[in-house]
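Figure S7 source data.
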Amino acid sequence: MSVLIKNGKVVTASESYIADVYVVGEKIAAIGKSLGVKADKVIDATDKLVLPGGIDPHVHLDMPFMGTYSSDDYETGTRAALHGGTTMVIDFILQTQGDSLANALKTWQGKSKGKAIGDYSYHMAVTDFNDDVAKEVVHMIKKEGISSFKTFMAYKGALMIDDGQMVALMKVVQKNGGLVTVHATNGDMIDTLIAKNKALGNRAPIYHYLSQPEVTEAEASARFTDMLHYTDCPGYIVHMTCEGALNAVRRATQRNQKVFVETCTQYLMLDASLYEQDFEGAKWVMSPPLREKKDQTALWSGINQGLVQVVGTDHCPFMWEQKQMGKDDFSKIPNGHPGIEHRMELLYSEGVRKGKISLTKFVEVTSTNASKIFGMYPKKGTIAIGSDADLVIFDPDKEHTISAKTHHMNCDYSAYEGKQVTGKTETVLLRGALAIEQGECKLKAGHGQFVARGKTSKVI
Ligand code: URP
Ligand code: ZN
Ligand code: ZN
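Tokens for the predicted zinc ion complex:
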């Protein structure tokens, strides 16, 4: 099948210009003015943006967590992502403590194969490091196309590793050309504050926020970057929320370290005042929690300074019924919220339309940088001849309102209910196939492919 997208504003991480884009099969075959080619399908993109398909490198689909499972699986989650212009996601495989990475990989292959509609890859979360796991890490990089390893400095007893394990993992990953990623919060400090609040009878969702103050994230981010420095390993901090943590990375970059930073849509746009209500605040119980307005300013500046390279979602939805698990105890509220669908539209509306970031920066942080950092550039994350034809035709002027009544995520509430947004995904191609048209998903479960990844690109 061939597709000709005519007369749109093609946007990459470095420039924007009016052109036609010609797709043959799964790849971009030509880009130019008034291309004189015949195509099976012609799309008029006049007054529209033509963007590289979004890449969300932080999602949790069908994930076992806190006694339940995140409510979007690979089918519903990647479908919702496509509706919002995200053509690829990177999910997290969780090693079970005491078990192998190989078994964990098999489990996640079972969740995704035949179900994913959009493309996907995996980070491997190492929750229990030893000599056997070290060998498996090498195997993952060399044979399985999994080059990023997630670590948790919190969630003790379930996911957390200690600093000794962290340093040992970094050494193996560094030697073999991978990347260590981290949930950087101080688990022991947080657990102490949770216990203290519970002993005082403080049970409401706001105590989730009060048990994870900024210092818990700033300290862990600094410790993580110091361990990276010690091992000469490249690293990536997921879901950064605050000024203190960003300053830790700023200091690390003064030592010329390779530390990449991801923030998420919600940390740029929502704040901790949402916890100042009764149990309703559970909708935004996530870790780390939402922060203050001054942190939003620091993060937007961090994006423009190049300190924050990626905006993901940490999509980890739970139904309202599941959130009730913590009705009488904030520490039992499943942590996470739905976000995969509206990342691109929210960031365009709040970032580009309101003049906080440029259009090219928008493409950088929603697609290109994730592709470069996670070793799949230029196959993914750009509009170039030979790249996968993952393309989004985006109406920059279309106004709409976000609501659980109309979203496609398998979650019965929205974290942004009633929010008015300017800019909407109109048509989406995934590897040249029509994925979204007129609000409908045209692809079936199983269309999504696993994307094997390699080393971080040298050009970031
Ligand atoms: O609250 C969150 N973030 N839930 C998902 C697990 C994690 O820490 O990313
Ligand atoms: Zn996390
Ligand atoms: Zn997460």
